[in-house]
Amino acid sequence: MAEIEQRLLMLIDDEPAQSRLITALAARDGWRTLVVRDSETAIATLGTRQGMQLNAIVLDQWVPGDDACNLIAELKARRPALPILMLTQSASPLLAVEAMRAGATDYLVKPVAPDRLMQALRMATTREAPRDELQPLTEKMPSTPDFDAMIGAAPTFRAALAVAAKAARGHGPVLIEGESGTGKEMLVRAMQAASPRAKAPFRILNVGSIPANSVESALFGHEKGAFPGAFDRHIGALQHSDGGTLALDEIDRLPLNVQQRLLESIQRGDVRPIGARHSFRIDVRLIAASNLPLKEVVAGGHFLAELLQAISGTIVAVPPLRERAGDISALARHFLARIGEQPGLRALGITDGALALLAAYDWPGNVRQLQAVLFRAAVFCDGDALTADDFPQLSDMLGSEGTQQQPVQEGMGVMLYTADGNLRPLEDIEADVIRLAIGHYRGRMTEVARRLGIGRSTLYRKLTELGIGDAA
Questions:
Q1: What is the per-residue pLDDT for 126?
Q2: Mean pLDDT, to the nearest integer, of 378-397?
Q3: For the whole model, what pTM was predicted?
Q4: Which residue in 15, 228, 439, 471 is deepest, having the highest Cβ count within 10 Å?
Q5: Cα–Cα distance between 12 and 58 in angstroms, integer?
Q6: Which residues neighbour 68 within 8 Å (Cβ) at sequence distance 6 or greater?
Q7: Are residues 313 and 174 in the same domain?
């Protein structure tokens, strides 16, 4: 019986603690890790028997320092097909651009969440997964926390924004549900900016990025000596947010015992740190976000029905990108404008053919994945506009389907006639003009209303009447 070959990872890192952590994480997913501590050893290792068996490289930028991109280029020149992931403490888009141009497959900002690291390794080495172009990027370009900055005219999306905008003005709990990458965090920030607690304390705690045995302490805090390793007193996110708002992202991943404690804390209006003898009264508005419909998680026995009831005063359902394909054109132009403002990049247009290709894909990673794909394409584009040729992996996956589909609401004009040569109904033409304006002005509704020569309230009324979306 043939022995199954274990995947081999070369980690270029001179920090023993981090090396042990990455080695342990990789081992959970079937990886064996070879640790080297300097650039020279890494290059020499490529020519050895072990080096020829490598499946991926993880490089900590700290090891070669400013020469990290040169090392990536050297490694890539010797082994062009080998995926290279760079770890760095810098969130600079310029460094991301330089690393990718040198040959890096992905770019991970420390401290990297275990799930993020494993996802990057899987996507870099799994043949069935989309290749380089569809690798997620961890850099986040700054965005305005405002409802007007959220791009889209799809009815379900506008309806979600309407519910969120109304809820933002209150003080009750809100539950935001939607797939990963749909823009839930941006919506949370927009709600916070529009809320009566806009200037009060605000925290976002991502449950999925915290080890399960540390979530309770992160949320409730702990006293010195409360458990082995508790060398200092720690104030939890709930107490930090007193008087303001706490956003719990990926709340569906909260352990059941912590769910019970959170429920009791909500019911009593207080928080007791681990190891504390008494509780502290708190006034915290809770905004929870979940990648999964929590009713289904409750049905599976992994979430408390009582906690769901306590956190779902208002439920906002954010639709996936595949259900709002008509927004892809506006989103693409918006992201390209923001990407063009980043150091090392420039403003780019995008052709109809490229937009048709983007519209034909179903985007399992949603808006976040679209932004990452556009970022990667912009890094390597030599022309003034992105074309279908700048998305070779998408073209390979979609084949003729991607080239045949026409972009939705391209912005080149509004159709006046039906296929049989008759004029289209006036309300249909008006709806197309409004969609066109929303796309052209990247969802800035105040600007859309001004350019159309109507009041903002009139614009929102027309969105409702014409079935484009609900008004906030």
A1: 66
A2: 88
A3: 0.72
A4: 439
A5: 6
A6: 59, 61, 86, 88, 99
A7: yes
